[in-house]
């Protein structure tokens, strides 16, 4: 009942916030104290009748606006309105428009919302989205989805992300970046993914796309090779694997890492591995795009009987479609009680949780403590029995000796 109450209160809170009009938004935020009223736009929906009121000479604008199907705005009009805007305080929603080339926000460097999303959705004619200057976001989500012809997206300078709004336990702690249900021609470059994964407060689990076809400049290998730093595809390490020396230079795996049935005692041969990022899963019920992979854990460490430590010396980020990025099962039994290995790996990763045979790191510490307590009790019992036997033996020996005398 308490959980239901919390959900109901959260729903009321969010709904109330979303229903606030622009004036209420401004009274709650920095725009209440904004020094230049001439750089504040008070209308909610941009249309051909009010776009001339947009403060197009300002570099910092306070506005909470949306562009919708009935806005009837040409791309030239929008470019002129936003030509000098570099910093926006407010929300942005672009939905169900006829815009083809969305480049009028190319000069925008930062967006600071209240608890809102930035949404660009359901624009069936849009083929390009240029946010090439956007570096700073303060929001819950950047949602670019269901634009079925969108092939090119430039968010290459994205770097400083801060998640605002309510923080419930089931929510991502980072700013959600959604790139989903776009053109079949849309793909993620390898450089882009490495850049995304370097952003500490970004959640990139909702990217439904494939990687772009590798080109020579990508320096990609598809099988273990000496001096290779980028591996494309699933790296499967199984019994009798002998190429571990070739993997010492590896920095990024653009696919899953599966270590299954090996004889390794540790994973130190992956000493330079920083990123693991499979792509290629999507909900095919809602799209005609064929994805390359099935949904699964990004890192799988399974059935390695001799494994004593599964810590990766340099690993920082694992991107996964599943809630848990890393699964560790059926290995050396001692790993079930090795909380240090689990905590080392979990602490090295950015906002990821680890499970070992279905147990989180915090649970492993408890199991380790209980095991040690059981061992101590067995030792005490064993010692007690041993002492008792020794005493009985000494008594018998004493009696025998006394009888002989």
UniProtKB/TrEMBL annotation:
Pfam families in the record: Recep_L_domain
Keywords: Membrane, Transmembrane, Transmembrane helix
Record-annotated membrane-spanning stretches: 379-398
SUPFAM superfamilies associated with the record: L domain-like
Gene3D superfamilies: Receptor L-domain
Domain Receptor L-domain, first and last residues per copy: 57-155, 227-343
PANTHER family: RECEPTOR PROTEIN-TYROSINE KINASE
Protein name: Receptor L-domain domain-containing protein
Organism: Caenorhabditis nigoni
Name of the gene encoding the protein in the UniProt record: Cnig_chr_II.g7123
